[in-house]
Each structure stands twice: as structure tokens, then as C-alpha cells.
Amino acid sequence: MGETVSARPLPTRSARQHTLRQSISCVGIGLHTGLRIRLALHPAAENSGILFRRVDLDGRTIPGRFDHVIDTRLSTVIGDPANPALRVATIEHLMAALSATGIDNVLIDVDGPELPVLDGSAADFVFLLDCAGLAEQAAPRAAIDVLRPVRVTDGDAFAELRPAREPGLALAMSIAFPAAAIGEQSFTARLDRRSFRDEIANCRTFTLRQEIEALHAAGLARGGSLDNAVVVDGAAILNPSGLRRPDEFVRHKMVDAVGDLYLAGATLNGVFTGHKSGHALNNRLLRTLFAEAGNWRFQTRTLRPQPLRAAA
Ligand SMILES: [Zn+2]
Hints:
binds zinc ion; 7-stranded mixed β-sheet; 6 helices
């Protein structure tokens, strides 16, 4: 249903780090500021991770990591608590595309306080990354094993991570909304390049019609439109072209979780379960995971077999 499908074969998950083959940029509207924002993605050195750079603020940088998240109310926002101007909002859909594409190192230039929202999904970011291409680097890729179950709750909402028997991240998400157009939905997936592209990448962010007035009164969602969000009014979808999938809402929540969890700083080996989980719980989950050394460990794949040793 309208996904961007790469003509190139999808490489198998590699043991080495990857960056972009070349720089690529785009211009789009910021969902909350309504500003025209330029985004440019550049190759970066191995072990440098994901770094955001505010080119309009003397090139000040913010690491794309969970411990630099300063706000999670409407989107995931990274920044410097001591300098309120130094922030980048709505990073989650790009983070999800980077995670699913297997990009470890990238420098992300942005000339405003939020990323362009594009069509409200991760599909356009996947397209940008495909256009730039991937470059393999020499350093081995790290992953983070979840060793003990961790769980965070907020009322009846929760998010948890459990150890996995096999490598990679498996996700289960469920939501429940009074709006009849959404209702109760659940979706499970094992994260890989193909499942992300084929099953969730093009699922858009959504909002309730009655919330739009409050957002506008607060000076937010100035760039929001039916071109970049699904708008729900009770049982009705206000977008003339309707939904991309009947359960687009829960699938979008999974895109958000994939992006938020990639702020761990490496891919996770674990099982994520979220119920009504959004940016706030997703971030609290990572903070809880990393708060205790026994909850997790770094795992780096061995690139070359060890030389055989003669038996003693
Ligand atoms: Zn989202």
C-alpha cells in the first residue's frame, strides 16, 4: 500500500558498523513550529554514533541518546537542559529509519528546533537513506543484550524489555482509544529491514480533532495538516484518502518505539512489550534499563574466528 520498496537486495544484518555512502538533504515543515526546516545527513566516522548538529546555533551538537532526552510530551526531544534553545524535537521517525536501515554513525544537520515531519511517517526517511546508500566500516557493530526484565508503568500503560533467546529486537504494541476509529489495536513484529519497510514504515502519526484546538492555543502543531497526520474525529477519519492500513495507529506507535529504543546507542537484543506506551514511557524504560549494571551488557561480534589452539 504505497511503501517505497528498494530495488536493491536487502543486505543481511552485518557484523560491522555502517554509515552513509554520501550526504543527502531535504527540506520540509516542522510539525510544531511550522518552520521550513532543512535536514542534511552526512557520513560519520566509526564509533561516532548518531549526532545532531544545530547549524543555526554555531554548529552546537547533541548526541542522539536516551540520556539527552529533555522532553517527551508531544515528541521525543533531545537537548541541553542548561540551554533551552539547544534542542531538536521530533527525532523519533528518523531514529526508527536509522535503526531499521542499520546505520550506526551519522551526522544530522538541522537548521531549526525540530526535524521536518515530512508525511508524518518514517517512509520518507527510509527513502532518503536508500538514496544516500550505506557504507560498511571496519569497526565491529555493538549490540546491547537485555539480561533482566525491566518494566515501567503509568496508570494502566506500561513498557517492558525482557531478555531474548535469539538476537535482535522483537516488539509487541497495543493501544486502546475511546475514539471508535481507533479502538483497541495490537501488532507484533520482529525488527529487520524488510519488516520495517513492508509493515510499519509508512504508518503516520495521528491526532484527535478535539486536541488540535488545544495544541494551536498552546502555539503548537502550527505545521500540522492532513498532509502529515491522520486526524480522527470519533468514528471518522478526516483525511480524504483515509488510512493506509486499518491498524495504522498501532503500527505508528511501533515506529515510535523503534525510534525511541534506538536511543539506547546500539541495537537491542531483547523483547519489547508496550501497552499505550509513548515517548515518555519508552524513554523511562531505557533509563531504567541502564540504571543498573546487571540489567544489560554490551556485546560485540567477533569479526574473525579465533586462531585454533593446539590441545594441551
Ligand atoms: Zn510518531
